[in-house]
C-alpha cells in the first residue's frame, strides 16, 4: 500500500526531526569547520603583505628608488622603534585617538538619531532626506575651507569634520535598515498586540541591527580617514601631522613610520568592531 | 480546555482600490464556523482566501458586512485569535523558546506560568531539546512547528493557518498534517486552514469551503463526514476529493448524475450555471 509506505517514511522522518542528537553533532561539526576556516583565513592573510614587504626590501636594497624617497624597511623599523621609545609616536597617537573617538562618538550619535527619525517617520524623511543627500555628497575636503572660516583651525574643526564623515554612512544605513524591516515581522508584532515601544525594542531594532552595525563600521573607517586628512591640513600634532612634518623635512622614514602606525591602529580598531559584531550577530547565517 | 468561539461571517465584501479603480476581492461571503470546528478553505490563487484570513485575524480592515466572534464585531488583532503564516516568520535573532515567548509578551500571566506554558508548547509540537536553537538551525518543517507553538502559546480561541505547509516537501507536509490534527484534537480549539492542496483540506477539515476567484466568493461548502484518522486512499476520501476537484478546477462533471453531497450546499445553487465552468 502506498499509504502505509508514506506513513512509514513520515514516521521515520519524525524520528529524525525529533532527535536532539543531530543538532549537537551539527554544532560540533560547525565549530570544527569554524576553527578550520579561521586557521585557513589566518594563513591566507599573510602571503600578500609579505610579498609587498619583500618587494619593498628588494626595491630599497637594489637602489631602484633613491633611499631619500623610499627608505628601506630596516630604516623605517628602527625609526619606528626610536619614535616609539622617545614617546613621540605614542603622544601623537593619543591625540589622534582622542580626536577620532570624540568625532566618531558625536557623529554616531547624530547619525543614529537622524537615521532612526528618517526610518520611523516618512514625513521627517521627506523634509530632511534631499538636503541630507546633498550634504552627504560633499567630501570632507570640500567642507574644510568653509569650516576653517567658521570655527577656526582648532580642535572644533577636527571634531566637526570627523563627525560629519562618521555621520553620513551611519545615518544612511540606519535609515535603510529600518526601512527594510520585513513587513511580515511587523505583522507578527501586530498579531501579538505589541505596543509601539515593544515593536521598536523587539522587532524594528533587532531586525535593523545588522545594517545599522555595518553603518557604524563604515562610519568608523570614514572617521579614521577623515582624521588623517584633517591632520594633514590643519594640525600641529597627531599622526597626520607627523606625516606632513616628516615630508617637509624630507624624513621619509618618519612618514612611513607614521603611516604604519595609522595602518596598525586602524586595522586593530576595525578588528575589535568585527569581533563585537560576531558576538552580537551570531544568529545570522552567511550566504557564502 | 473548552473554548468558546463561534465565528459568524455574513455578507462580507471587501475591495481594494487600484489606480482609482475599484477591485472587488471578496463578495458576499456568508459562513458560520462553530467552536472546535476545523474548517478548510480551498481555492485557486487570487480567490481572496488569504484576504479572508487577514480580515479574520484583524490585519486588514475596511470591509462591508459583518465578522462576529461570539456576537462581537472583530476590530483589529486580538490575543484570542492566533495565526500561522506560510513563511514561518520567526525572528532570526531569537532562540526557539524566546520566539515562542513573544506570544506571551502581553499575556497577563505570571512569569513562572509563562515559562511552563512555553515548555508545554515546545513539547506539544515535538521540539523538546531544541529550546535554545536558532531559526537558521531548523529545517523548514521544524520552523513551522515553532510558528504553530508561538501561535498557540496564548491559548487562542481560534487558530488561523494561511497555507502553513505550502513551502514544505511532500513527506514533511504529510507528517505535519497528522501533527496538526493531533494538536487540534488535544487543544480542542477552532482552526481555519487556508490551502490550495485539496487533499490537505479534506484530510483535516470537518468541512471544506471551496472558493472561486474574481471576485472571491464561496462556491460550495463540502462537509467531510469521515472518521479520523482519515485514509487518503479510502474510497470515500477519494470520492470527496474528486468532487471538490471538479469544483476547484472548474472541469465538467464526469458523472451526469449530481453527486449526493450537492444537496447540502446552498451557495452554489445561487450561481448561474454558465459561471460554473468559466473559471
Q: What is this entry, summarized?
A:
The complex is a heterodimer of chains A (288) and B (279). With 288 residues, chain A is mainly alpha-helical.
List the defining traits of the structure above.
heterodimer, A: 288 residues, B: 279 residues, alpha/beta, four-stranded antiparallel beta sheet, 8 helices, 10 strands
Report on this structure:
The complex is a heterodimer of chains A (288) and B (279). Chain A folds into two domains: 2-43; 87-280, MetI-like (MetI-like fold, Orthogonal Bundle). Chain A is 84% helix and 0% strand. Chain A has helices at residues 2-18, 21-45, 47-61, 73-86, 88-120, 122-137, 140-151, 155-179, 183-191, 196-233, 239-248, 252-280. Chain A starts with a helix and ends in an 8-residue tail after the last helix. Chain B has a domain at 7-80 and 156-272: P-loop containing nucleotide triphosphate hydrolases (Rossmann fold, 3-Layer(aba) Sandwich). Chain B is built from eight helices and ten strands. Chain B has helices spanning 49-57, 96-101, 111-124, 140-152, 170-187, 198-204, 235-249, 273-276; strands at 7-18, 21-33, 38-42, 64-69, 72-73, 81-84, 158-162, 190-195, 207-212, 217-223. In chain B, the strands form two sheets. Chain B has a six-stranded mixed sheet, with helices on both faces. In chain B, strands 2-1-4-5 form a four-stranded antiparallel sheet, covered by helices on one side. The relative contact order of chain B is 0.17. The model of chain B is unreliable at 251-279 (pLDDT under 50). The A-B interface holds A 1-3, 6, 9-11, 13-14, 17-20, 23, 26, 184-185, 187-188, 190-195, 198, 202-203, 206-207, 209, 282-285 and B 57-59, 77-79, 81-83, 85, 87, 89, 91-94, 102-103, 105-106, 126-130, 133-137, 139, 141-142, 154, 171-172, 174-175, 178, 231-233.
Largest sheet of chain B: 6 strands, mixed
Order of secondary-structure elements of chain B: EEEHEEEHHHEHEHEEHH
Rg over C-alpha atoms of chain B, rounded to the nearest angstrom: 19 Å
State the low-pLDDT regions of chain A, or none: 1-21
